[in-house]
Amino acid sequence: MEQLLDLYGFASVVLHAAELVARTVLLGSVVFWVLLAVPLARLMPPGDADRLHAIARRTVLASGIASLAATFLLGLLSFVALEATLDIGARALLGADFILLTGLDLLAMLVLLALALPRGRPAPNRRWGLLGLAALVLLAVTFGSHAIARTEGRAMLLASTALHQAGAAFWLGGLPCLLAALRLTPPSARIIGQRYSLLAAIGVGLILLGSAGFWFGFIGSAGAVYGTAYGSMAASKLIMLVLLLVLGAMNYRLLHRIAPTPGGTLRLRRFIEAEMSIGIAVLAVAASLTSVPPAADLPDDRVTWQEITERFTPEWPRLTSPDHADLAIPALQAQLDAEWQQRQAAQRPQAFTPGEGLLPPRNATDIAWSEYNHHWAGIMVLLVGLAALLDATGRVPLARHWPLVFLGLAAFLLIRSDPEAWPLGDIGLLDSLRDPEVVQHKIASLLVVGFAVSEWSVRLGLLRGRVRFVFPLAMLAGGVLLLAHTHAISNIKEAQLIELSHLPLALLAVVAGCARWTELRGPPELARIGRWLWPACLIGIGLLLLLYREA
Amino acid sequence: MSLCFETARRSLALAAVLLGLALLRPVPAAAHAVVVSSEPVAGAALATPPARVTIRFNSRLDHERSRLLLIGPDGAQTPLAIAGDSDPVVLAAPLSAPPGPGAWRLRWQVLAVDGHITRGDIPFSIQAP
């Protein structure tokens, strides 16, 4: 049970992200089905109309099942965590508001799935039923959100939450259906695209309206944007929203000029895939936001602009390693940890999710060690980016071996990440693997080896097919997970400053993943842009790592 | 081709699992309900024992499903009866027996009405007369 509690904070964010993605697609595909597929069916050939109906129905069913599972697991996780920590019995827990709302949400989704199950086209009553149940899901989610726990401006924040989530559903939630529908005949794809543009525009409007409410209720000032975890994550969301709007604007143009050829929608499909990837990243940030207190509630200990400029003023990278003997020895460190925890607890009350620990104390040599690691990793990523750029010119055959630089990075991580353990420290390899963090570092090194070897094999032509997508998908997954887990913390300044350096890394990783995906999938005119864009992102990541500082 | 697909599928599954594992490191995370103020305040050295403890949060709470424990200098834990009629953002409890001299800890766990669980400690001490 203790292990479950240890995982509670992390698991709840990941499940919440999965729930958000699934529910957004569920609501969006219901809207797509009822407000787009049904009315447009009579304007297209019967074959296309049948296929469009099937696409919408299948997406509703698939996303409904996924949403049902994620919502149930999230509710179960909280229920089990409460049962493990309170002595009031399972029966008393069932009366909690969030359990009742989760139950209502699940029930609405079950009935919605039942309504979506028949293969026939939905009659008016069934359509109203689908829309009504989607609205009920939205209502249940809204009344179980952050907004309901507020003491001030609750009505405004509840309305903002509902508008924001409805907007995401109208716009992002309809993308999977749209992507599949673009494979219909070009005339049908064109009218679908034009109608979808209208839904997406409504969605953008609703999102912006909701965001305005969040600004007044949860953030409130520019200082809160960079000074708190909530604010900086909301800013990351805004940056991605701008990216999405740019992609959406390009889509809007293309949707109205779909060429009457089978390949006419290829460019559009690439843009929509990128939109979906960034959309998932946005929802991952939204899930992460649910685990931090609103910026408006943390008026003290915010990071100041001066501290940010001081921290991010470039300095020459640390390329000389501190002596391993200078690092904190475990026994002393354990004592320091205990003292530090006592001191922290005594200074002010902090709030934690179950199972969560405190930031470990560090000394100057530890910081130097970490900065040295980041800086050399930055040099290697920079080399990868530069070599990939050279490779993109097609004039330097040797440059195609750039994935091998990642092998160097893997070896570096393997040796340097845990100084107290093998091969640098006194703790043997097998003994060190009892520590989960050491295991994670070793696995991460092996993961980098896996990427490097698979991508190198692709470059040499030894592997073909879908293995090509391992590299871009890994970049995307890395970026999304970095965004999903970056929650700092009851406003501890140091953690917020570190987080500020990691958010741009995550954003660049998401863009790089999309660009590499586009390079691989075409069409040629977009692939050419992608070929230059993702190495540029890697160079950006390398430079950010080179500038990384912890003090 | 199928071999390539299988390799890709396995690699992706591995990547997803490993990236997930990489996030399991014990990074502290804040949560919704944070303490706004408390009586006694954290770290207080009191000359006389309090008759009542009060913690004010930033979120509305489910009092029935929240918990307050008083942990004594010897580590003994005493559950406190939370007052049900208090402010929605306040967790308050009377102390039936005044705590004696030594280092005490008020351990709280709250369920916010949005379903988030948060916990924490408020240490204080009672000085010997």
TrEMBL record, chain A:
<feature type="transmembrane region" description="Helical">
    <location>
        <begin position="60"/>
        <end position="82"/>
    </location>
</feature>
<keyword id="KW-1003">Cell membrane</keyword>
<feature type="transmembrane region" description="Helical">
    <location>
        <begin position="20"/>
        <end position="40"/>
    </location>
</feature>
<dbReference type="InterPro" id="IPR008457">
    <property type="entry name" value="Cu-R_CopD_dom"/>
</dbReference>
<dbReference type="GO" id="GO:0005886">
    <property type="term" value="C:plasma membrane"/>
</dbReference>
<dbReference type="GO" id="GO:0006825">
    <property type="term" value="P:copper ion transport"/>
</dbReference>
<dbReference type="Pfam" id="PF05425">
    <property type="entry name" value="CopD"/>
</dbReference>
<feature type="transmembrane region" description="Helical">
    <location>
        <begin position="372"/>
        <end position="390"/>
    </location>
</feature>
<dbReference type="InterPro" id="IPR032694">
    <property type="entry name" value="CopC/D"/>
</dbReference>
<feature type="transmembrane region" description="Helical">
    <location>
        <begin position="238"/>
        <end position="255"/>
    </location>
</feature>
<feature type="transmembrane region" description="Helical">
    <location>
        <begin position="529"/>
        <end position="548"/>
    </location>
</feature>
<feature type="domain" description="Copper resistance protein D">
    <location>
        <begin position="194"/>
        <end position="289"/>
    </location>
</feature>
<feature type="transmembrane region" description="Helical">
    <location>
        <begin position="470"/>
        <end position="488"/>
    </location>
</feature>
<feature type="transmembrane region" description="Helical">
    <location>
        <begin position="196"/>
        <end position="218"/>
    </location>
</feature>
<feature type="transmembrane region" description="Helical">
    <location>
        <begin position="168"/>
        <end position="184"/>
    </location>
</feature>
<keyword id="KW-0812">Transmembrane</keyword>
<keyword id="KW-0472">Membrane</keyword>
<feature type="transmembrane region" description="Helical">
    <location>
        <begin position="128"/>
        <end position="148"/>
    </location>
</feature>
<protein>
    <submittedName>
        <fullName>Putative copper resistance protein D</fullName>
    </submittedName>
</protein>
<feature type="transmembrane region" description="Helical">
    <location>
        <begin position="276"/>
        <end position="296"/>
    </location>
</feature>
<feature type="transmembrane region" description="Helical">
    <location>
        <begin position="94"/>
        <end position="116"/>
    </location>
</feature>
<keyword id="KW-1133">Transmembrane helix</keyword>
Automatic annotation (TrEMBL), chain B:
<dbReference type="InterPro" id="IPR007348">
    <property type="entry name" value="CopC_dom"/>
</dbReference>
<keyword id="KW-0186">Copper</keyword>
<dbReference type="InterPro" id="IPR032694">
    <property type="entry name" value="CopC/D"/>
</dbReference>
<dbReference type="InterPro" id="IPR014756">
    <property type="entry name" value="Ig_E-set"/>
</dbReference>
<dbReference type="Pfam" id="PF04234">
    <property type="entry name" value="CopC"/>
</dbReference>
<feature type="domain" description="CopC">
    <location>
        <begin position="32"/>
        <end position="126"/>
    </location>
</feature>
<dbReference type="GO" id="GO:0030313">
    <property type="term" value="C:cell envelope"/>
</dbReference>
<protein>
    <recommendedName>
        <fullName>CopC domain-containing protein</fullName>
    </recommendedName>
</protein>
<dbReference type="GO" id="GO:0005886">
    <property type="term" value="C:plasma membrane"/>
</dbReference>
<dbReference type="InterPro" id="IPR014755">
    <property type="entry name" value="Cu-Rt/internalin_Ig-like"/>
</dbReference>
<feature type="signal peptide">
    <location>
        <begin position="1"/>
        <end position="33"/>
    </location>
</feature>
<dbReference type="GO" id="GO:0006825">
    <property type="term" value="P:copper ion transport"/>
</dbReference>
<dbReference type="GO" id="GO:0042597">
    <property type="term" value="C:periplasmic space"/>
</dbReference>
<dbReference type="GO" id="GO:0005507">
    <property type="term" value="F:copper ion binding"/>
</dbReference>
<keyword id="KW-0732">Signal</keyword>
<keyword id="KW-0479">Metal-binding</keyword>
<dbReference type="GO" id="GO:0046688">
    <property type="term" value="P:response to copper ion"/>
</dbReference>
